[in-house]
Amino acid sequence: MIIISHKFGQLGNRLCLFAHFIAVGREHGIAVANLAFDEYADLFETTSADIACRFPARRLRLPVTPRLRRALHRISLAADSRIQGPVKVFAEKVSLPEGQSMDIGSPDFVAKARRKIVCIEGWEFRSADNVKKHADAIRAYFRPVAAREADVQQVLAKGRKDADVLVGVHVRHGDYQEFCGGRYYYTLEQYDAVMRRVQELFPAKRVGFLLCSNLPQDLSTLPSVPVTSGPGNMVSDMYALAGCDYILGAPSTYTTWASFYGDVPLYKILDPDAPISLSDFQRYLPN
User: Most-buried pick from 4, 26, 91, 224 (CB within 10 A)?
Assistant: First the structure.
């Protein structure tokens, strides 16, 4: 069994990490419990009904509340810190220092997870081949709850009303002023310039844009392109991007997950002034 108790990053990071463990669990018949997913559990149909966010999915007959999930997460962290001595016979903690990666589809890791409880701490636990193999099952597991799905469908219908091609745009502000020294923090005017270059890639079609952001944006400053505002909450924005024909945005696990979930080509803006071609849009697995 695999237990994830330690949190790393925000929603995009949590989804990507969880996806790799689900893929390995499905491939090798290993149970996974992600207690570190507690604050996002109510956003998804499968995890909203399970106090421990388990794979394979299980439903608890008793009511599940955020308070219970938080309590269970605290207990798991306390237990994790006490894995020593005789306890190591049936439980082991696997920690990854920053910058290191581990193939959790390897025979050694799989054998360990079958033999005992493995408690995980770290970020770059990966099994890309298994994620690719079990992509549809992962997508099914992370279907958003009905209310968020309704938000997504409503805004997509609005965005497509006068568009032949709908391009999702994620304006990552807020934390990106500090992330990597602000390297990927672009102004709204820079996003506008990128959007206009993308529009030129489809000269015979009506191109519309669906803009989502982690901060409120004044769309009246984008008069040169037709823009629809996203639903305005974290998971609905992500899944609205996944419902577009193309996505563009600064490099992040947020847009990477949208690309994976919707199987949609994504353009990662590394340089807002660079020329763009359709070949620059790529489909991504969670990474």
Answer: 4
